[in-house]
């Protein structure tokens, strides 16, 4: 059982996934900072200095922070859109590389043989 687990854990896909998760977490922090520190203050200025995090309602002893919830939804949408754009660029670059790799190499001997064959068919 231990050997099976080692084989599973050492497969390239599992290691690639782990690296992806770590890089994704780091990228998430960068995008979160972009949203919270740059974009949302500018949005707040555009809509009259409004800060969603200040909106809350107190019901009994409970404080319902619906403004913070709205802020988190906006953060999520901006982060998701940013990740979408990065993945879109990566996919385009991969497609360009695949097209370059798929271009068949022309073998001059094969081309000459095809020309000879075609000439013989014509006679």
Draw up the topology in text:
Blueprint: H1 2-10, H2 12-46, E1 57-59, E2 62-64, H3 66-102, H4 108-122
Antiparallel strand pairs: 1-2
Helix pairs in contact: 2-3
Question: How would you describe this structure to a colleague?
Answer:
Helix content is 78%, strand content 5%. With 123 residues, the protein is mainly alpha-helical. It has a single domain, classed as Non-ribosomal Peptide Synthetase Peptidyl Carrier Protein, Chain A (Orthogonal Bundle), CATH 1.10.1200. A two-stranded antiparallel sheet has the order 1-2. Strand 1 and strand 2 form a beta hairpin. The longest helix is centred in the C-terminal third of the chain and has 37 residues. It is elongated, with a radius of gyration of 28 Å. The mean pLDDT is 81.
What fold name stands as the CATH topology? Answer: Non-ribosomal Peptide Synthetase Peptidyl Carrier Protein, Chain A
- The low-confidence parts are none
Roughly how many Å is the radius of gyration? 28 Å
What's the arrangement of strands in the largest beta sheet? Answer: 1-2
CATH superfamily descriptor:
Large-conductance mechanosensitive channel, MscL, domain 1
Oligomer: single chain
What level of helicity do the residues show? over 70%
- What is the average per-residue confidence, as pLDDT, rounded to a whole number? 81
CATH architectural name: Orthogonal Bundle
- Main sheet specs: 2 strands, antiparallel
Number of helices: 4
The proportion of residues in beta strands is under 5%
Kindly state the number of beta strands: 2
GO molecular function: mechanosensitive monoatomic ion channel activity
Protein name: Large-conductance mechanosensitive channel
Pfam families: MscL
Membrane topology: Multi-pass membrane protein
């Amino acid at each position: 059982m231990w050997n099976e687990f080692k084989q599973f854990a050492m497969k390239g896909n599992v290691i690639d996934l782990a690296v992806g998760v770590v890089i994704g977490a780091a990228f998430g922090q960068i995008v979160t900072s972009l949203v919270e520190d740059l974009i949302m203050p500018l949005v707040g200025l555009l809509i009259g200095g409004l800060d969603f995090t200040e909106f809350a309602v107190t019901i009994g002893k409970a404080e319902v922070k619906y403004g913070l919830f709205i802020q988190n939804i906006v953060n999520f949408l901006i982060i998701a859109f940013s990740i979408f754009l990065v993945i879109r660029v990566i996919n385009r670059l991969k497609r360009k590389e695949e097209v370059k790799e798929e271009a068949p190499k022309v073998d001059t001997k094969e081309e000459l043989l095809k020309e000879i064959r075609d000439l013989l068919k014509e006679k």
